[in-house]
Amino acid sequence: VNLVVSSEYGNKTSPIMYGLMFEDINHSGDGGLYAELIRNRAFQGSGNTTNPTLAAYRAVGDAVISIDTTNPLSPALKNVMKVTPISSDATQVGFLNEGFWGINVKDQEYTGSFYVKGQYNGAFIVSLKSNLTSKVYAQKKVRSASKPDVWTKHEFVLHPEAAPNVNNTLQITFNANGSEEGLWFSMISLFPPTYHGRKNGLRKDLAENLEKFKPTFLRFPGGNNLQGDEPPYHWKWNETIGPLIDRPGRPGTWGYENTDGLGLVEYMEWCDDMNLEPILDVWAGYYLSGPTIPQEELEFYIQDVLNELEFLMGSIDTPYGSLRAQLGHPKPWVINYVEVGNEDDVGGGASYSAYRFPMFRDAIKVAYPHMTIIGSTPKIDPIPDGAWLDYHRYTRPDDFVSLFGMFDNWNRSHPVFVGEYAYIQPNKPGGGGPEWGGAWRSPYTTLIGMISEAVFAIGMERNADLVRAAAYAPILQNLNSYQWSPDLISFTADPEETALSISYYLQKLFSTHHGTTVLPVTSDVKFGPLYWSASSTDDGGYYLKIANYNGTTTTVTFEVPDDNVIKGKLTTLSAPSPFSENSPKNETSIWTEKDVIKGADGKFAFDLPDLTVAVLAVK
Ligand code: AHR
């Protein structure tokens, strides 16, 4: 296959082409990227209800633990845990927490805190312990003069020796003497060092893995988790800010309670620290299994979005801008993109086009004319002027490949944001798209799935004038409790078990080789089984991206319109067989890099095996 790049008629690429879509799904937030190590820290609910449980806790010593709903820690956090000693002379009674299916105990500093109510004059013993043996990795005495009628915050720092595995607990105990009545506890919290050292920040290793593939934007907070299942549980920005004891949390859409410790400010700090363009998703008034807010009641929710934007962008002289300053961020953030709702062709239907999207868009545009407003579906009629429209696709490999040319023929009257896409199932005989109900899903993304994503992504890149941003979804999966597979990164409490999927490496390959102008390419064959696109860079180089989907090993030659370009580097991504996958401690994907020198005929040449994606970077 001979590919010749033209120096004319290119399209400028988008500076935010490869990015992140994040919502709390698969314990991607609580128990994932949010670095809090204590599960159920404030008894905010269970499953997707607000009913509290003692999940992750056990009594220690001669004590009984129970939920109490009559002694709220704060108006937001109504449920607390009571620890009642069985006898007045019991020593070292209390509780332990098993963390999010383990606690990673390393030779580093952990900062913790907990609130206590009840009469106690003594010390709490706080320990990081093995869950299997009596081994204690760190222990501290925390002095207390807790009183019956007020909640007292206790703080501590632990510096343990490293534990050999993550089957560990945080244990807090006290002597019954003088506190026979029992003590009440809530907001039991423990953080390891975080990404960029932020208080209440992100789990370092997971954030660093995301950072490594060089994403350029963050779409948040959903996804379905923005929407909520039923009233009043859509994501509410103002309930995710400020002190943790003022954040009520909510039953998330994905079957577990969200603490909202990872809230709006933390999302913005994540954007700051990873240099990501925020794409803020706002609620459009559709609950997933509940009612739809009617037109005459929308004004309240639109005003709420304007309040949120004032909080993020307003000067400190505005009411919400001043609130942001009080929370430690006097400098306004900049929001350039707002998406209205999520997949509203699915839930919203006709009302989205008819008045919902226009009402939100018009109000935001009046206040912030610079903003790009994104519709959550391409099925908007009439197509709104200047808006981007969000297209999602989860499917099978053959289907992705069949969509290679889709954007070539797309209506050019609006830019496209591919806000979510991923391979989810193997091909079925006869081809076609996914079967949702009860269909078999891949646990991890596979080689053939990744190649099909590459073909689809190359199709997007060729249409740089149209497709302005794209994100694989979902990005994170806690292997101990998840609702959706496959995902970009799978993990447990143990960083040694993190699996970077084959699709992760594809995102990395494409994101780190993103040209500034996509150029036309002429060839001596049609697309299929090879699919390609080429771009130039600002420093005089060129990239060829090419995938081989169910072909044979093929020699590819590549010519660029510049005699001074003589050196190249070929990076390939593949794996041993079509269903190879990367799972914990078993990375099968193969990433290779080698130099390619221009031949005497003026061409760069290399062999591209089947089920391989490659980037040739020449300069
Ligand atoms: O990414 C998982 C889910 O898929 C998202 O929450 C939703 O937008 C889509 O249907």
From TrEMBL:
Residues 419-612 form the Alpha-L-arabinofuranosidase C-terminal domain. Its EC number is 3.2.1.55. It catalyses: Hydrolysis of terminal non-reducing alpha-L-arabinofuranoside residues in alpha-L-arabinosides. Gene3D superfamilies: Glycosidases, Golgi alpha-mannosidase II. InterPro entries: Alpha-L-AF_C, ASD1_cat, GH, Glyco_hydro_b, Glycosyl_Hydrolase_51. Pfam families: Alpha-L-AF_C, ASD1_dom. The keyword Kinase does not apply. One of its GO terms (biological process) is arabinan catabolic process. Keywords: Glycoprotein, Hydrolase, Signal. Pathway: Glycan metabolism; L-arabinan degradation. GO terms for molecular function: alpha-L-arabinofuranosidase activity. It is an enzyme of class 3 (hydrolase). Belongs to the glycosyl hydrolase 51 family. PANTHER family: ALPHA-L-ARABINOFURANOSIDASE 1 (PTHR31776:SF0). This is non-reducing end alpha-L-arabinofuranosidase. It comes from Morchella conica CCBAS932.
